[in-house]
Amino acid sequence: MRITTSKSKNSESFYITQSYTNANGKSTSKTIRKLGTLAELSAQLHTDRDGVVEWANEQARLETLKYKSEKEDATVMIPFHSNRLMDYNKQKLFSGGYLFLQSIYYGLKLDSVCRKIKSRHKFEYDLNAILSDLIYTRVLEPSSKSSSFRAAKQFLEPPTYELHDVYRALSVLASEMDFIQSEVYKNSFFLGDRMDRILYYDCTNYYFEIEQEDGDKKYGKSKEHRPNPIIQMGLFTDGDGIPLAFSLFPGNQNEQKSLKPLETKILQQFGCDKFIYCSDAGLASEDNRVLNHMGQRAFIVTQSIKKLPAEDRAWALKKTGFKRLSDDKPVDLTKLTDDDKNQLYYKDEPLTTKKLDQKLIITYLYDN
After folding, report:
1. pLDDT class of 368 with cuts at 50, 70, 90
2. How far is CA 17 from CA 28, 30, 35, 64, 294, in A?
3. Is residue 89 part of a domain?
4. What percent of the chain is predicted at pLDDT more than 70?
Protein backbone atom coordinates (compact mmCIF):
# COMPACT_ATOMS: atom_id res chain seq x y z
CA MET A 1 0.00 0.00 0.00
CA ARG A 2 1.09 3.56 -0.60
CA ILE A 3 0.20 7.17 0.17
CA THR A 4 -1.55 9.33 -2.43
CA THR A 5 -2.66 12.93 -2.22
CA SER A 6 -5.25 15.06 -3.95
CA LYS A 7 -5.10 18.83 -4.05
CA SER A 8 -7.90 21.33 -4.41
CA LYS A 9 -7.79 25.10 -4.42
CA ASN A 10 -7.81 25.42 -0.65
CA SER A 11 -6.67 22.05 0.74
CA GLU A 12 -4.59 18.89 0.28
CA SER A 13 -5.94 15.48 1.31
CA PHE A 14 -4.02 12.27 2.15
CA TYR A 15 -5.20 8.73 1.34
CA ILE A 16 -3.93 5.16 1.70
CA THR A 17 -4.42 3.33 -1.61
CA GLN A 18 -3.83 -0.23 -2.75
CA SER A 19 -2.91 -1.42 -6.23
CA TYR A 20 -4.38 -4.64 -7.59
CA THR A 21 -5.22 -6.44 -10.82
CA ASN A 22 -8.90 -6.55 -11.68
CA ALA A 23 -10.87 -9.38 -13.28
CA ASN A 24 -9.94 -8.12 -16.74
CA GLY A 25 -6.24 -8.38 -15.97
CA LYS A 26 -5.71 -4.62 -15.78
CA SER A 27 -3.83 -2.84 -13.01
CA THR A 28 -5.91 -0.41 -10.99
CA SER A 29 -6.12 0.91 -7.43
CA LYS A 30 -8.64 1.59 -4.69
CA THR A 31 -8.78 3.83 -1.65
CA ILE A 32 -8.41 1.94 1.61
CA ARG A 33 -8.62 4.85 4.01
CA LYS A 34 -8.79 8.64 4.01
CA LEU A 35 -6.34 10.07 6.52
CA GLY A 36 -7.51 13.69 6.39
CA THR A 37 -6.47 17.04 5.04
CA LEU A 38 -3.08 18.62 5.56
CA ALA A 39 -4.55 21.32 7.79
CA GLU A 40 -6.40 18.79 9.97
CA LEU A 41 -3.42 16.46 10.31
CA SER A 42 -0.95 19.29 10.96
CA ALA A 43 -3.13 20.58 13.78
CA GLN A 44 -3.70 17.09 15.16
CA LEU A 45 -0.05 16.02 15.01
CA HIS A 46 1.48 19.45 15.74
CA THR A 47 3.87 19.19 12.80
CA ASP A 48 4.50 20.51 9.29
CA ARG A 49 3.86 18.80 5.95
CA ASP A 50 7.04 16.66 6.14
CA GLY A 51 5.93 15.35 9.51
CA VAL A 52 2.47 14.56 8.14
CA VAL A 53 3.98 12.65 5.20
CA GLU A 54 6.20 10.63 7.55
CA TRP A 55 3.20 9.78 9.75
CA ALA A 56 1.10 8.86 6.70
CA ASN A 57 3.79 6.48 5.40
CA GLU A 58 3.86 4.75 8.77
CA GLN A 59 0.07 4.35 8.64
CA ALA A 60 0.40 2.81 5.17
CA ARG A 61 3.00 0.36 6.49
CA LEU A 62 0.70 -0.67 9.34
CA GLU A 63 -2.22 -1.14 6.95
CA THR A 64 -0.01 -3.34 4.76
CA LEU A 65 0.92 -5.54 7.72
CA LYS A 66 -2.73 -5.78 8.74
CA TYR A 67 -3.75 -6.76 5.21
CA LYS A 68 -1.07 -9.46 4.98
CA SER A 69 -2.04 -10.86 8.37
CA GLU A 70 -5.71 -11.04 7.45
CA LYS A 71 -4.90 -12.64 4.11
CA GLU A 72 -2.68 -15.30 5.70
CA ASP A 73 -5.36 -16.18 8.24
CA ALA A 74 -8.20 -16.11 5.73
CA THR A 75 -10.32 -19.22 5.28
CA VAL A 76 -10.54 -20.41 1.68
CA MET A 77 -13.84 -22.05 0.80
CA ILE A 78 -13.81 -24.75 -1.89
CA PRO A 79 -17.32 -25.64 -3.07
CA PHE A 80 -18.26 -29.29 -3.62
CA HIS A 81 -21.49 -30.43 -5.24
CA SER A 82 -22.98 -33.68 -4.01
CA ASN A 83 -25.05 -34.15 -7.15
CA ARG A 84 -22.11 -33.96 -9.59
CA LEU A 85 -20.15 -37.00 -10.73
CA MET A 86 -16.35 -36.96 -10.91
CA ASP A 87 -14.77 -37.07 -14.35
CA TYR A 88 -12.54 -40.14 -14.13
CA ASN A 89 -10.83 -39.30 -17.42
CA LYS A 90 -9.50 -36.00 -16.11
CA GLN A 91 -6.16 -35.74 -14.32
CA LYS A 92 -6.57 -34.44 -10.79
CA LEU A 93 -3.20 -35.13 -9.17
CA PHE A 94 0.02 -33.47 -10.29
CA SER A 95 3.67 -33.72 -9.25
CA GLY A 96 5.33 -30.46 -8.27
CA GLY A 97 8.61 -31.67 -6.79
CA TYR A 98 10.47 -30.80 -9.97
CA LEU A 99 9.85 -27.09 -9.34
CA PHE A 100 12.65 -27.08 -6.75
CA LEU A 101 15.03 -28.52 -9.35
CA GLN A 102 13.80 -26.12 -11.99
CA SER A 103 15.46 -23.12 -10.35
CA ILE A 104 18.82 -24.94 -10.40
CA TYR A 105 18.34 -26.03 -14.01
CA TYR A 106 17.70 -22.49 -15.21
CA GLY A 107 20.34 -21.12 -12.84
CA LEU A 108 22.84 -23.24 -14.77
CA LYS A 109 21.45 -21.67 -17.96
CA LEU A 110 20.84 -25.05 -19.54
CA ASP A 111 18.03 -23.53 -21.57
CA SER A 112 20.61 -21.28 -23.23
CA VAL A 113 22.87 -24.29 -23.79
CA CYS A 114 20.00 -26.06 -25.58
CA ARG A 115 19.45 -23.05 -27.83
CA LYS A 116 23.12 -23.07 -28.84
CA ILE A 117 22.93 -26.78 -29.59
CA LYS A 118 19.77 -26.31 -31.67
CA SER A 119 21.56 -23.74 -33.83
CA ARG A 120 24.00 -26.47 -34.90
CA HIS A 121 21.44 -29.18 -35.62
CA LYS A 122 18.26 -29.62 -37.60
CA PHE A 123 15.45 -30.88 -35.39
CA GLU A 124 11.97 -29.64 -34.52
CA TYR A 125 11.44 -31.03 -31.01
CA ASP A 126 11.96 -28.98 -27.85
CA LEU A 127 15.39 -30.09 -26.63
CA ASN A 128 15.20 -27.90 -23.53
CA ALA A 129 11.94 -29.52 -22.41
CA ILE A 130 13.29 -33.02 -23.03
CA LEU A 131 16.60 -32.45 -21.24
CA SER A 132 14.98 -30.75 -18.25
CA ASP A 133 12.38 -33.50 -17.83
CA LEU A 134 15.05 -36.20 -18.12
CA ILE A 135 17.06 -34.50 -15.37
CA TYR A 136 14.05 -33.96 -13.10
CA THR A 137 12.87 -37.55 -13.39
CA ARG A 138 16.41 -38.90 -12.97
CA VAL A 139 16.54 -37.16 -9.59
CA LEU A 140 12.95 -37.74 -8.48
CA GLU A 141 12.10 -41.11 -10.00
CA PRO A 142 15.07 -42.84 -11.68
CA SER A 143 13.89 -45.20 -14.39
CA SER A 144 14.03 -45.89 -18.11
CA LYS A 145 13.43 -43.21 -20.72
CA SER A 146 9.95 -44.57 -21.37
CA SER A 147 9.07 -44.58 -17.66
CA SER A 148 10.59 -41.12 -17.26
CA PHE A 149 8.33 -39.85 -20.03
CA ARG A 150 5.29 -41.27 -18.24
CA ALA A 151 6.43 -39.75 -14.94
CA ALA A 152 6.87 -36.34 -16.59
CA LYS A 153 3.23 -36.48 -17.69
CA GLN A 154 2.30 -36.09 -14.02
CA PHE A 155 4.11 -32.74 -13.78
CA LEU A 156 2.22 -29.47 -13.50
CA GLU A 157 3.77 -28.69 -16.89
CA PRO A 158 3.38 -31.97 -18.82
CA PRO A 159 5.50 -32.74 -21.91
CA THR A 160 4.52 -31.21 -25.22
CA TYR A 161 6.80 -33.65 -27.05
CA GLU A 162 6.41 -37.36 -27.79
CA LEU A 163 8.41 -40.36 -26.60
CA HIS A 164 10.10 -40.82 -29.97
CA ASP A 165 11.45 -37.27 -29.64
CA VAL A 166 13.23 -38.34 -26.45
CA TYR A 167 15.02 -41.17 -28.22
CA ARG A 168 16.00 -38.91 -31.10
CA ALA A 169 17.34 -36.29 -28.70
CA LEU A 170 19.68 -38.80 -27.03
CA SER A 171 22.04 -38.92 -30.01
CA VAL A 172 22.20 -35.12 -30.09
CA LEU A 173 22.92 -34.92 -26.37
CA ALA A 174 25.62 -37.58 -26.72
CA SER A 175 27.34 -35.69 -29.55
CA GLU A 176 27.26 -32.46 -27.51
CA MET A 177 28.35 -34.09 -24.25
CA ASP A 178 31.65 -32.21 -23.92
CA PHE A 179 30.06 -28.86 -24.75
CA ILE A 180 27.29 -29.37 -22.19
CA GLN A 181 29.79 -30.26 -19.47
CA SER A 182 32.00 -27.24 -20.10
CA GLU A 183 29.03 -24.85 -20.19
CA VAL A 184 27.55 -26.27 -16.99
CA TYR A 185 30.91 -25.84 -15.25
CA LYS A 186 31.21 -22.21 -16.33
CA ASN A 187 27.59 -21.42 -15.48
CA SER A 188 27.82 -23.12 -12.08
CA PHE A 189 29.66 -20.07 -10.78
CA PHE A 190 26.39 -18.13 -11.08
CA LEU A 191 25.06 -20.33 -8.27
CA GLY A 192 28.10 -20.13 -6.00
CA ASP A 193 31.82 -20.68 -5.69
CA ARG A 194 33.44 -23.95 -6.75
CA MET A 195 36.32 -25.60 -4.93
CA ASP A 196 38.04 -26.31 -8.23
CA ARG A 197 41.59 -25.98 -6.90
CA ILE A 198 41.34 -29.62 -5.78
CA LEU A 199 40.12 -32.22 -8.27
CA TYR A 200 39.47 -35.88 -7.50
CA TYR A 201 39.51 -38.48 -10.26
CA ASP A 202 38.26 -42.05 -10.24
CA CYS A 203 36.82 -44.63 -12.61
CA THR A 204 33.99 -47.12 -12.51
CA ASN A 205 32.19 -49.30 -15.04
CA TYR A 206 28.70 -50.45 -15.96
CA TYR A 207 27.73 -53.87 -17.25
CA PHE A 208 25.20 -54.68 -19.95
CA GLU A 209 23.11 -57.82 -19.93
CA ILE A 210 24.35 -58.93 -23.33
CA GLU A 211 26.70 -61.71 -24.37
CA GLN A 212 28.30 -60.20 -27.47
CA GLU A 213 30.53 -57.14 -27.50
CA ASP A 214 28.92 -54.14 -29.15
CA GLY A 215 30.76 -50.90 -29.92
CA ASP A 216 32.46 -49.66 -26.74
CA LYS A 217 30.75 -52.40 -24.74
CA LYS A 218 33.73 -54.69 -24.30
CA TYR A 219 34.67 -57.53 -22.00
CA GLY A 220 36.79 -56.19 -19.16
CA LYS A 221 37.27 -56.28 -15.41
CA SER A 222 33.84 -55.52 -13.99
CA LYS A 223 33.67 -53.74 -10.64
CA GLU A 224 30.70 -55.99 -9.86
CA HIS A 225 32.51 -59.12 -11.06
CA ARG A 226 29.93 -59.67 -13.79
CA PRO A 227 30.81 -61.79 -16.85
CA ASN A 228 29.25 -59.26 -19.22
CA PRO A 229 30.55 -56.56 -21.56
CA ILE A 230 31.11 -53.26 -19.78
CA ILE A 231 31.59 -49.57 -20.51
CA GLN A 232 33.90 -47.55 -18.27
CA MET A 233 33.46 -44.02 -16.99
CA GLY A 234 36.06 -41.62 -15.63
CA LEU A 235 34.79 -38.82 -13.39
CA PHE A 236 36.35 -35.63 -12.06
CA THR A 237 34.79 -34.05 -8.98
CA ASP A 238 35.79 -30.84 -7.24
CA GLY A 239 36.87 -30.51 -3.63
CA ASP A 240 33.24 -30.53 -2.49
CA GLY A 241 32.48 -33.74 -4.37
CA ILE A 242 30.39 -31.98 -7.03
CA PRO A 243 30.91 -33.53 -10.49
CA LEU A 244 33.01 -31.50 -12.88
CA ALA A 245 33.48 -33.65 -15.99
CA PHE A 246 33.23 -37.25 -17.12
CA SER A 247 34.18 -39.41 -20.06
CA LEU A 248 33.17 -42.84 -21.34
CA PHE A 249 35.65 -45.31 -22.78
CA PRO A 250 35.71 -48.97 -23.90
CA GLY A 251 35.43 -51.67 -21.28
CA ASN A 252 38.70 -53.34 -22.29
CA GLN A 253 40.81 -50.17 -22.04
CA ASN A 254 43.32 -49.60 -19.25
CA GLU A 255 41.72 -46.97 -17.02
CA GLN A 256 45.12 -45.35 -16.44
CA LYS A 257 44.98 -44.03 -20.01
CA SER A 258 41.57 -42.41 -19.52
CA LEU A 259 42.95 -39.49 -17.52
CA LYS A 260 44.90 -37.57 -20.14
CA PRO A 261 42.08 -37.08 -22.72
CA LEU A 262 39.61 -35.90 -20.07
CA GLU A 263 42.08 -33.66 -18.28
CA THR A 264 43.08 -32.13 -21.61
CA LYS A 265 39.42 -31.21 -22.20
CA ILE A 266 39.26 -29.57 -18.77
CA LEU A 267 42.37 -27.53 -19.52
CA GLN A 268 41.26 -26.46 -23.00
CA GLN A 269 37.48 -26.18 -22.80
CA PHE A 270 36.78 -25.46 -19.13
CA GLY A 271 39.53 -22.93 -18.53
CA CYS A 272 40.41 -24.75 -15.30
CA ASP A 273 44.20 -25.03 -15.30
CA LYS A 274 45.33 -24.56 -11.70
CA PHE A 275 44.52 -27.47 -9.42
CA ILE A 276 45.84 -30.35 -7.34
CA TYR A 277 45.09 -33.75 -8.85
CA CYS A 278 44.08 -36.42 -6.32
CA SER A 279 43.53 -40.11 -6.97
CA ASP A 280 44.08 -43.56 -5.55
CA ALA A 281 47.05 -45.72 -6.48
CA GLY A 282 45.17 -47.34 -9.36
CA LEU A 283 45.19 -44.05 -11.29
CA ALA A 284 48.56 -42.79 -10.08
CA SER A 285 50.85 -44.11 -12.80
CA GLU A 286 54.06 -42.21 -13.37
CA ASP A 287 52.73 -40.86 -16.67
CA ASN A 288 49.69 -39.46 -14.86
CA ARG A 289 51.93 -37.89 -12.24
CA VAL A 290 54.11 -36.32 -14.93
CA LEU A 291 50.97 -34.93 -16.59
CA ASN A 292 50.02 -33.21 -13.35
CA HIS A 293 53.51 -31.90 -12.69
CA MET A 294 53.17 -29.37 -15.51
CA GLY A 295 52.01 -25.77 -15.57
CA GLN A 296 50.18 -24.75 -12.41
CA ARG A 297 49.15 -28.29 -11.53
CA ALA A 298 50.34 -30.60 -8.77
CA PHE A 299 49.31 -34.01 -7.48
CA ILE A 300 48.64 -35.94 -4.29
CA VAL A 301 48.17 -39.67 -4.87
CA THR A 302 48.26 -42.78 -2.74
CA GLN A 303 51.22 -45.13 -3.01
CA SER A 304 51.36 -48.83 -2.23
CA ILE A 305 54.10 -49.44 0.33
CA LYS A 306 54.56 -52.96 -1.06
CA LYS A 307 55.53 -51.53 -4.44
CA LEU A 308 58.16 -49.15 -3.07
CA PRO A 309 61.87 -49.92 -3.52
CA ALA A 310 63.21 -52.00 -0.64
CA GLU A 311 65.09 -49.10 0.94
CA ASP A 312 62.09 -46.77 0.86
CA ARG A 313 59.79 -49.54 2.07
CA ALA A 314 62.01 -50.19 5.09
CA TRP A 315 62.07 -46.47 5.92
CA ALA A 316 58.29 -46.20 5.60
CA LEU A 317 57.70 -49.08 8.02
CA LYS A 318 60.05 -47.75 10.70
CA LYS A 319 58.19 -46.26 13.66
CA THR A 320 60.74 -43.52 14.18
CA GLY A 321 61.14 -40.15 12.50
CA PHE A 322 57.47 -39.17 12.76
CA LYS A 323 56.11 -35.74 13.68
CA ARG A 324 52.76 -34.77 15.12
CA LEU A 325 50.78 -32.92 12.46
CA SER A 326 49.31 -30.38 14.88
CA ASP A 327 52.63 -28.95 16.06
CA ASP A 328 55.44 -30.76 14.15
CA LYS A 329 56.76 -32.18 17.42
CA PRO A 330 58.97 -35.29 16.86
CA VAL A 331 57.45 -38.49 18.28
CA ASP A 332 58.35 -42.15 18.61
CA LEU A 333 55.36 -44.29 17.65
CA THR A 334 56.45 -47.02 20.06
CA LYS A 335 55.95 -44.66 23.00
CA LEU A 336 52.46 -43.34 22.31
CA THR A 337 49.95 -43.28 25.18
CA ASP A 338 46.19 -43.01 25.43
CA ASP A 339 46.57 -39.23 25.48
CA ASP A 340 47.84 -39.46 21.90
CA LYS A 341 44.72 -41.16 20.54
CA ASN A 342 43.14 -39.79 17.37
CA GLN A 343 46.25 -37.77 16.58
CA LEU A 344 47.74 -37.79 13.09
CA TYR A 345 51.48 -38.26 12.62
CA TYR A 346 53.61 -38.06 9.50
CA LYS A 347 57.10 -38.20 8.07
CA ASP A 348 58.39 -37.44 4.60
CA GLU A 349 61.43 -37.85 2.40
CA PRO A 350 62.36 -37.21 -1.23
CA LEU A 351 61.38 -39.94 -3.70
CA THR A 352 63.10 -39.93 -7.07
CA THR A 353 61.88 -42.02 -9.99
CA LYS A 354 62.92 -42.14 -13.64
CA LYS A 355 60.84 -39.11 -14.61
CA LEU A 356 60.08 -37.20 -11.41
CA ASP A 357 61.45 -35.85 -8.17
CA GLN A 358 58.65 -36.31 -5.65
CA LYS A 359 58.03 -36.32 -1.92
CA LEU A 360 56.92 -39.51 -0.18
CA ILE A 361 54.69 -38.81 2.83
CA ILE A 362 53.86 -41.54 5.35
CA THR A 363 50.95 -40.89 7.73
CA TYR A 364 49.92 -42.73 10.88
CA LEU A 365 46.73 -42.37 12.90
CA TYR A 366 46.86 -43.66 16.47
CA ASP A 367 43.41 -44.94 17.41
CA ASN A 368 44.25 -48.04 19.43
Report:
1. low
2. 10, 6, 11, 10, 68
3. no
4. 100
